Amino acid sequence: MEESFDAEGSFDDASCLSSQSPGSTSPARRQTKEQEIKETKITINCVTFPVSTSTPEQQLLKPNEWSYCDYFWADKRDPQGATVPGFEVLLQKQLKGKHMQKEMAEFIRERIKIEEEYAKNLSKLSQSPLAAQEEGTLGDAWAQLKKSLTDEAEVHLKFSSKLQSEVEKPLLTFRGDNFKKDMKKYDHHISDLRKQLVSRYAAVEKARRALVDRQKDLEVKTQQLEIKLSNKTEEDIKKARRKSTQAGDDLMRCVDLYNQAQSKWFEEMVTSSLELERLEVERVEMIQQHLRQYTTLRHETDMFNQSTLEPVDQLLQSVDPGKDRELWVREHKTGELRPVDMDI
Amino acid sequence: MEESFDAEGSFDDASCLSSQSPGSTSPARRQTKEQEIKETKITINCVTFPVSTSTPEQQLLKPNEWSYCDYFWADKRDPQGATVPGFEVLLQKQLKGKHMQKEMAEFIRERIKIEEEYAKNLSKLSQSPLAAQEEGTLGDAWAQLKKSLTDEAEVHLKFSSKLQSEVEKPLLTFRGDNFKKDMKKYDHHISDLRKQLVSRYAAVEKARRALVDRQKDLEVKTQQLEIKLSNKTEEDIKKARRKSTQAGDDLMRCVDLYNQAQSKWFEEMVTSSLELERLEVERVEMIQQHLRQYTTLRHETDMFNQSTLEPVDQLLQSVDPGKDRELWVREHKTGELRPVDMDI
Fold first, then answer.
1. Minimal C-alpha gap between B121 and chain A (Å)
2. Alpha-carbon separation of residue A206 from A252, B304, B334 (angstroms)
3. Which InterPro entries match (chains A, B) (predicted)?
4. What is the ipTM of this complex?
């Protein structure tokens, strides 16, 4: 505190500077006979900040970390003009993150559907009787080529199945429904502390006005005594002075209670925002892990897909027109005896 | 020829053995005073074969090759009972082979359609706005993951395009429409030679019957002379004998013409069946080559598909929750000044 409070003596009119915003007091500059007082603090929406030009630079609580606990003290205005506490911005980020998970899972679901369709089409074509009448080594190679489509279909079904269990499901179920409840708890807890701060601030303002009134009363009564304007006795002045002092004590107590409430809110803000920060790191890492799983499954799938060609390549290698001719001729020959000249 | 023909003297009744089939004569066994004649040849459908048990084994024209020219001399019966020349069987095989090509091309066409559908689905999903609001390094990785589906789609479209130009089209166009015309030419050519053989054979049979008649006439007239049954003179017998001899000459000439026609047919059979054999080898090798092209394209596709993941893997590697926090906090922070105690 830069302005001291003298319990017994004269006591400067504490100025409570604030910007033009609901629930704050208007700025005022007061100059006393003793010194020029510069306003060094400002209360905005019942939270008291240093005026940035006057104080030595505050050190960040967690320098170089861009930590949530360092950047969300003030309230902001949303496009509709409503006041949004910094902590609310952090909570919204968490809820949005949960929604992003869900949308990513939806995307994976769509991929799964595409894979299943592809597999179904390949499988169906694999059963086709087209060119089934081709025989011999060529017929075998062709049959295996057709069969390989079934193998490919299985690869893609396996892929889609693993996509579901290893990517989609985790993305959907990470944090579950409890998460929103947890966020609400944080929300309410911090809001309650802010509300307390608001009411303590109101008490301070009330005590401040009461003090001003008491001081005015004392001053009037003192002046009246001097010019013997009324029949006020010294007794009245003492009473006025006592009330003034009491009002001063009240103000001190209210300010003290206000500062306690603000400290409490401050502590909870630091703790909670760090927790949200941790949760966000966890979320990003979880998503990264599962998207890597997606690419791993894709790599695997392409490899398994390649291997469906091995038996086809082998059989194509073995295609032998001579062997096929032998097989066919053995089955379809009509006669080996060659014609001879007719005798007479 | 195992039975000799004596131009002037007695002349054995040439027997023309054949099986019970249209256009052939019935089997007969004749025994003369001089020797037992074993039937060593048989004419079936106007083609003359050795009787298999009597001749020394014929050597195959192309031993160990199962060549068409060795195995399709006889006609066969189809299930409806019609006679099908061996060469016809070979032609049918060629036409069937052309049909197999066509069916294989159809199969490839179906694969192309499946690939195009798959590519279309991937491409559409790639454009999805799901989780587009994710920002920072995680957002970049997610965006690349989505984009990779477009890359995959392109890989599959390229695959289907090459399937069309390098597999389907060659299979469809190999040999084209001229092939059927060429086969018809072979068909007609060989058929014409067979028809000629049939008519030459009919001439032989006619000449044979004429000879028998002449011989009978001579015999009767000779007998009549001996028993002085009629007033036939030596002159009549001489005439009869001359006619008999002429009939013998006619028969010889017919048999000779027949044998020439059979030789001509024989030569064409060998040449043409070897050509069909060559065409079949060419067909099998062409199909083998193009099916190998199919598997090559499949291998390529799986590899290109893998490479679509590289940028995704890289960006996932670079996901940095701290960096993302910095980016987000810079944009969304509400205020860095921390609250301080209110002064009185």
1. 7
2. 12, 75, 29
3. AH/BAR_dom_sf (IPR027267), F_BAR_dom (IPR031160), FCH_dom (IPR001060), GAS7_F-BAR (IPR037957)
4. 0.85
